[in-house]
Predict the 3D structure of the following.
Amino acid sequence: MKKHSITIPYSEIKTDRLPTKDSELVQAALEAANNAYAPFSGFKVGAAVRLHTGEILTGNNQENASFPAGICAERSVIAYTHANHPSAKIQEIAVTASPCGICRQVLLESEKRAGSPIRVLLIHKDKILFFDSVKDLLPFGFDSF
Ligand code: THU
């Protein structure tokens, strides 16, 4: 048997040193979190995507008394994006949390639709973590080999 290991490349920068364009996207995600509906967990999440057109769209988590019916911030903005801009390519996404497994898989599909890597910005306290592709966040995500 052969043993392998995976290295996940990512970069980080202090939030107050972010370039203006990144700062815009991060700010949009942070603002979107304010409109989250999270009375059950109390955990508000915001997400912002930038399309190839430059347009920024936002989403947030929307919970439900029937817990599994709730939706994460990432999936809310991704569904909105593809529903209203079917030919749009998502270039990057900023999230105020670290995406759950389902959201990573959904992001992987958007990356496929875009035909090029989606850059991911995770807002982590006073730092931003950058991933060049969703694939870095979900090694061995569901796909055909
Ligand atoms: N949540 C997100 O919005 N995104 C994630 O990637 C993980 C979790 C939400 C779901 C739920 O409303 C709350 O955070 C607590 O789990």
User: Anything to note?
Assistant: The mean pLDDT is 97.
